[in-house]
Amino acid sequence: MTQLTTINSDNVTSQPLLEWSPGVVQRSASPVSRLIREWQLISDRNRELEIVNSWSLPGGKVNHLDEVLVRAGFNTARDDSQGDQYLWLLVKQATSDELAARIVLQRILPPLLAIARRRGRIVEGGIDTAIADVLPSAWGVIRKYPWHRRPIKVAANLVRDSEYFAFVHGNRSKRYKVIPMDPFILSEFLVAPEEQFEEEVSLDKLIAVALDQGIDPKHIEILRAVAAGDNAATIAARYGVAERTARAWRAKAVSELRVRTRCAV
Question: Which InterPro entries does the entry mention (predicted)?
Answer without folding.
Answer: Sig_transdc_resp-reg_C-effctor, WH-like_DNA-bd_sf
